[in-house]
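can u do me a favor
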């Protein structure tokens, strides 16, 4: 399934495909700004599309969020692969990937749909597994180069990405205001550089802790 071909759909006409792309991009921004409690009505308001158009392509919010998750995970996976092949060093590849994921708010969507009554679709499960493996490889290479502290793992990184605050919104009209992501990403990266001056408590998190975090915090 492509992000521009919702579940059960045949290949879309150009205008319908454009609508789907617009819905996905706007919804991604809405959830980044307001969290998963944001309504489909807010997506419709910001996109300028009717509720019927959105529900024609995505039968419910779960389907919409899963499609966004697939989109951003695919983009993040491609970014890991490109960074490792294009950057001159492991640290620059690592920082490029983290800053990219923060811009996409990938961390917020990473383990989406875990713990639901229904299991996520095979495409979501597959791309999530691929991205986790790519991040583990990136972390291992950066540690082997001696520039990333050796007492963190890829699961730490995913959870830390979720500590980056969302864009702040104006309380009057809900429009985005300050975006402090780049500022706090700098603080995060500084703390991850080897050798690290503060000993970390053990044990390190694993997949179980990531899934539990998202069930508890986001109800996913």
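np, heres the sequence
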């Amino acid at each position: 399934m492509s992000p521009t071909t919702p579940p059960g759909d045949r290949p879309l006409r150009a205008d319908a495909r454009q609508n789907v792309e617009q819905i996905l991009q706007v919804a991604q921004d809405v959830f980044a700004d307001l969290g998963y409690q944001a309504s489909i009505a807010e997506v419709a308001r910001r996109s300028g599309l009717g509720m019927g158009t959105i529900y024609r392509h995505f039968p419910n919010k779960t389907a919409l969020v899963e499609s966004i998750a697939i989109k951003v995970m695919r983009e993040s996976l491609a970014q890991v692969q490109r960074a490792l092949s294009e950057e001159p060093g492991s640290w620059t590849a690592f920082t490029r990937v983290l800053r990219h994921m923060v811009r996409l708010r990938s961390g917020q969507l990473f383990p989406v749909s875990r713990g639901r009554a229904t299991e996520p679709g095979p495409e979501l499960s597959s791309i999530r597994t691929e991205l986790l493996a790519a991040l583990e490889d990136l972390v291992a290479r950066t540690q082997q180069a001696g520039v990333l502290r050796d007492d963190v793992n890829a699961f730490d990184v995913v959870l830390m990405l979720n500590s980056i605050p969302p864009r702040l919104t104006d309380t009057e009209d809900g429009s985005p205001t300050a975006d402090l992501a780049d500022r706090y990403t700098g603080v995060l990266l500084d703390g991850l550089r080897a050798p690290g001056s503060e000993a970390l408590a053990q044990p390190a998190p694993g997949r179980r802790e990531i899934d539990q975090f998202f069930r508890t915090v986001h109800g996913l």
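The longest helix spans residues 61-86. hope that helps!!
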